[in-house]
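ok so I'm stuck.
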Amino acid sequence: MNEASGPPTTPSSPRFKPDPSESLYGGYTRFELELEFVTMLSSPLYLNHLASLKLLQAPDFLAYLQYLHYWTRPEYIKYLSYPGPTIRALELLQEERFRTDVLSPGVPLALAFREIFDRMIETFDTRWLHGSTVPKEDEIGVYMLKSDGQQ
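replied:
not stuck anymore, here's the structure
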């Protein structure tokens, strides 16, 4: 079986190799399940969903969120697809006010816009602003109108 037929991975995240002696839960290791869960925390809408289920008020669930802080360590953060939003969510979920406020529809929307803005800033190449290079059409991802009005 060749590697190309395996599950897709992002180039930035290393491949996880489970320990054969580790217990499986529904065919997945605990590491894989926790990775899936903390990755979901990067979604503001998922945080709103957890709040609507009143999970963010349950002491056992709050203890689990505290336990998940090990994902902030370098040896684990490298596996996160969205490290910034995931770690930010883990930190915000420790605050009681945030756990209450996230029920409001405006809070997840504001978080989503912040993530979009942060990603734009991270990927925006400012060299052309200072005259060192001029971006090409495909680099900025926008169609430029040609002088004859065609795209």
